[in-house]
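The aim of this short unit is practical: by the end, you should be able to scan a pair of folded records and say something sensible about each. We start with the first protein, listed as its amino acid sequence and then its structure tokens.
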Amino acid sequence: MSTLTIIILSFIAILFLRLLFRKVVDLPAFKGPVFSDLYQVDNIMLEENFWNIIHSAGREAKGNYQLQCNLLTEKLELLSTEEIIKFNRLFSLLMAKSFSYKIWEAAYALNGGCSDDAFEYFRSWLIAQGRNKFYWTLRYPRLLFLFGVKEMIVNYEGIDYCSRDAFENKTGNDIPDTFDIDYADGGELFKENAAFFKYPELALLTW
């Protein structure tokens, strides 16, 4: 088999895998501890209920992230104001405790750079991908190769506003803040240039 044939077959295999995991197949069920079990935070939604809402909007959107955000806002508006607050507090907990330089390094390689704000939006987008992809990626960032998308293709910003918009649409008021939920320390800083060598497969993704 020629080198060119191997390259072509490898490219086709990668294309197939990414289409499969982005559009059809989820990662295996995550069985490890979840953040709501590890951190005692008052007045949050049950994670099972939270992820059911996220997954429902994702399925209906069929891979369209902005549509998923719109659908999620609509679904949250059907909840009581107390449940919207609980959803928002759990979302804030997931955002705060997923702050990790290990994940930031992978996002940096994927996007050719990743500012503070971009990393916030990236983690919110990761939550939108569902429970299994969220928690598995926090453990193994390289899994982004299967379903990760550059921000220049899919604007990560959006899902972090859904509960706030739903609450405001329902009540006319701002949703209560979540300043009591502390961010993780993030671990060890990474060297920006080294990120591309650590995750070359993410840096080379173009779609």
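Turning to the second protein, read its sequence before its tokens, just as you did above.
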Amino acid sequence: MSESPRVIFDVAHNPHAAEYLTGRMKALPKNGRVLAVIGMLHDKDIAGTLAWLKSVVDDWYCAPLEGPRGATAEQLLEHLGNGKSFDSVAQAWDAAMADAKAEDTVLVCGSFHTVAHVMEVIDARRSGGK
């Protein structure tokens, strides 16, 4: 977790986990917006998962996940009605961090794959990679 903006990683990828995450997000002090970087697998309950998260997320940054099970950003947007579509998790992460103000929260969620990819991007940049 980062402090400014606050960054939260959560692997919630089903309605039960999303319900729990929603409760935890509502318990946090909210000063700014919540920007969600999300990528999911198409064989998960996307509609049920996003239905919970919609109540705590202000802006969506949707990304496809690689591989045959990965949902496209467009598939996620079908359930959201609004949000931004990106070609990769890294692009969605970069856009969310660029848009986030110090008082905002950036939530990375939807899949172990999404969280792992963002963590790899952060680690690579800390070690001098892109």
